[in-house]
Amino acid sequence: MLISGATGLVAAAVPALASTPRARTEQRPDRRTPKRVVVIGAGLAGMTTALDLRDKGWDVVVLEARDRVGGRVHTLYDPFTTGLHAESGGESIDDGHYAIQAMLKRFGLRTEERPPTKPYDSAVYYKSMREPLAAFLSRSNGKTLSDYLRCQDAMAALGDGIDPQHPERARNAERLDAMSFETFVRSLHLAPEAEFLVRLQNRGEYNAELRDISCLFVAQQSVAAPPSLDGQGLTGTETMRISGGNSTLPVAMAKALGSRIRLNSPVLRVEHSRHGVRVHTPHGHVDAAWCVIAAPLMPMRRVHFSPTLPASVARVIDDLDLGHAAKVIHEYAVPFWKAEGSSGFTVTDLPFAIAWSSTDSRVDTVPGLLTQFITGDAAMTAARLPAPKRIAHFGAQLDRVYPEGKPLQASNTATMAWANERYTGGGYAVFKPGQMAPFWPVLRHGFGRIRFAGEHTETLAGYMESAVRSGHRIARELGRAPR
């Protein structure tokens, strides 16, 4: 997903309206308004939208609340040893992520390959014992593996008859949407070790506890990205990263857009009518024919819409949350896991659940980095801890898994809890039970002169790829600028 392999996107939204003077609505739009689109958010979704629309002749203004571009794609270079970096957000690109790969080619950026053996040489830490994944799967005379695969088959069957473009139209959409993924997994009566793997996999995949995931959402994703042991399964495909850090892509996109991007411009108010929009920031307003909200919806709850949005649209903004995701990254003098024949990919029954090597795509580094990816309830705990305590709390868990690594630890550590980011609010979007069927048509079609872009609006959700696809989709819908 966006954080673990993903991903995306942006900032936007706001301080409280009460502290902002009300704009004079009698001001007339400028003459460029009919050919202008205002995009909220300078993440991958927003900047892809802006680049495509610029190429179609539109006058584009991108409003970004932060002092940087990229949103949830954010590479950390400090405080690590020179030459090292790690991703605090969107991490990996898959072989089938053609939209983002085309964007990389456009800007002359290259990728680094992650180890193809990663799905096979992973380590499992379960009930205070560490062993290779292959040995763990053979437990209970192979029932661990057979039950895990049985669950994968059952998940794939959820997608039977589902059109990922219109999941709400499926004959069984209402029933699936009302059911939590927790209920579905319990109904399979899996062996304990298999259930542990299934829960861990999907908690990481959807950055949420299973009780908070709609089965209709899982069904849609099973069609958009079919689950399998070697594919979108336990360890995922996640075959590459961008050379020099994933942030090099949004930086290149921003350079191409130039002054069309306005940083430090949180949106306070959106006035809209059938003729166009007026979007207010602390620095003034922008008149446009269209407004594209290419940002997570949680920060948009602080934006005032005038007139009030229809209840169906307002509910999507108010209720579609981002899941809980955090990372803690540790530097080691040497990547000791390599000497043990491991890629560094680790799954555990400890609260952090998943870890991997942030440097597994780098063959030219001596020090190594391990990233703990924390999701669900554990990520809520992580967000409540100050950064030093968060690093110590989850670092102690990693030391239990790899005690041999403790003497090799450097003092260079970093962490990110996305729930604490004002203009984000969490990891990536998750549809809770009862939300997919009513929310999906709104996200895909928007309302009036307002459209939505972002990872949460695509059939394949949660990835950097999803963000780029959404920008292309919106630009196709708006078409060429009017003469």
User: What is the arithmetic mean of pLDDT?
Assistant: 92
Q: Which runs of at least 5 residues are low in confidence (pLDDT < 50)?
A: 4-26, 228-236
**What is the count of β-strands?**
20
CATH superfamily of the domain at 34-71 and 246-321 and 430-478: FAD/NAD(P)-binding domain
Based on Cα principal axes, name the global outline.
globular
Oligomer: single chain
CATH topology assignment of the domain at 34-71 and 246-321 and 430-478: FAD/NAD(P)-binding domain
Give Rg in angstroms: 22 Å
Distance between the termini: 40 Å
Relative helix content: 25-40%
- Binned strand content: 15-25%
Structural class: alpha/beta
CATH architectural group of the domain at 34-71 and 246-321 and 430-478: 3-Layer(bba) Sandwich
Number of helices: 16
How would you sum up this structure, described in words?
- By secondary structure, this protein is an alpha/beta fold.
- Among the domains are: about 35-70 and about 245-320 and about 430-480, FAD/NAD(P)-binding domain (3-Layer(bba) Sandwich), CATH 3.50.50.60; about 145-225, Guanine Nucleotide Dissociation Inhibitor, domain 1.
- Helix content is about 30%, strand content about 20%.
- It contains 16 helices and 20 strands.
- The strands form 5 sheets. A 7-stranded mixed beta sheet has the order 7-6-16-17-18-15-19.
- Helix 11 packs across helix 15.
- The chain starts with about 35 loop residues before the first strand and ends in a 5-residue tail after the last helix.
- About 55% of the residues are buried.
- Residues about 5-25 and about 230-235 have low confidence and may be disordered.
